[in-house]
Write a structure and sequence with these properties.
The chain is an alpha+beta fold. It is built from 9 helices and 19 strands.
Length: 342
């Protein structure tokens, strides 16, 4: 009733001409913001198009992942050899302003959308780093997100890094695992550090190679109805597995890490994960805009609720100084070497 009363007042008395479409879009955005949920977001046509590019693994922007922590927008990770890394942005930076607009006045998707744009154009970003404000001017570029990388480490140990659960990440992981198996690896390190999540279905598909037959994750809706996403066709890797996690491992990363931990299919090493166990659905609207809405939460196979709690590693290794050699990776190699001892 309030909307129908206010609409004609704005149309007849507001100083500038404004379309009904613009007013209604603002009303919808306000409704979603009233939920006080940083993961539920209304996207107009342009924002939705950018979101789709992001989840499909190719994006125009600066090359950072951003998440919400303590109501602040924190740089989760910086992709190497991108405009952001070249400009000097660092993991842990707190986004303060984007193009002179305060981060506190935006939701996270709007802040990220402002950083994206045409290649060659500039975006001004102000961040808080160790209590000091730092300003950066970053030139946007096409960011091709390499979601999966792999190599064989000394001792015939396979190393597989998954940086994002894009819609095609499961296919890419299968290809990389096949290559590693051709190299006759004796153990595998699966690196999910700083992986912010993404496509849940891709995570469940990847889980086939790491957990036994049975539930990978449970989805619980507001009425308490529980749906299980199952691994119906497990594929045996036949080698011991260590999984690396840290506070940047979130959402779909935690689905996979939680399933591996609960089923004792591998050893988790690193630091406690982020703790995002909320499930969003994407609802396309008639006007080519979209709503990303939290509709459920997920539980691990042993029905642990990790929302805001995260997943504790089996072996904690804190990597305090990023300048030093990777102690978490070194610990993973040490653990696998012990397991492989005759």
């Amino acid at each position: 009733a309030a909307t129908s009363n206010i609409l004609p007042v704005i149309k007849t008395q507001y100083l500038e001409d404004v379309s009904v479409k613009q007013i209604m879009a603002g009303a919808v955005r306000g409704m979603v913001e009233s939920l006080d949920d940083p993961y539920s977001v209304y996207m107009d046509q342009e924002e939705y198009e950018e979101f789709r590019h992001h989840i499909e693994g190719s994006i125009g922007g600066i090359g950072i992942y951003v998440s919400v922590k303590d109501d602040k927008f924190v740089v989760f990770s910086v992709i190497e050899n991108t405009p952001a890394s070249k400009a000097g942005l660092l993991k842990g930076d707190i986004i303060f302003k984007v193009n002179q607009k305060l981060a506190s006045e935006m939701d996270v998707d709007e802040a990220v959308a402002k950083m994206r744009g045409e290649p060659g154009t500039e975006v001004e970003i102000s961040v808080l780093r160790e209590g000091k404000l730092k300003d950066f001017t970053v030139v946007r570029d096409i960011i091709d997100i390499p979601t999966v990388e792999s190599e064989v480490l000394p001792g015939e140990i396979g190393y597989l890094q998954l940086k994002l659960f894009a819609s095609n990440s499961d296919e890419a992981v299968v290809e990389h695992l096949a290559k590693l198996q051709q190299e006759k690896i004796k153990g595998l390190i699966f690196d999910l550090r700083d992986n912010p999540g993404g496509d849940l279905e891709a995570a469940v598909n990847i889980a086939r190679y790491f957990v036994p037959q049975g539930p990978v994750v449970y989805i619980v809706d507001k009425k308490g109805h529980t749906e299980s996403m199952l691994n119906k066709q497990p594929v045996q890797l036949g080698v011991p597995v260590v999984v690396l996690i840290n506070e940047g491992s979130a959402s779909a990363s935690e689905v996979l890490a939680g399933a591996i931990k609960d089923t004792n299919s591998g050893i988790l090493i690193g630091e406690k994960s982020f703790g995002k166990a909320l499930v969003q659905v994407l609802i396309e609207m008639r006007g080519k805009d979209a709503l990303k809405l939290t509709t459920a939460k997920y539980l691990t196979p042993n029905k642990h609720d990790i929302q805001t709690k995260g997943i504790e590693p089996d072996i904690e290794v804190v990597w305090g100084n990023v300048a030093e050699e990777d102690p978490q990776l070194q610990k993973a190699l040490e653990v696998l070497e012990k397991q492989l001892e005759p």
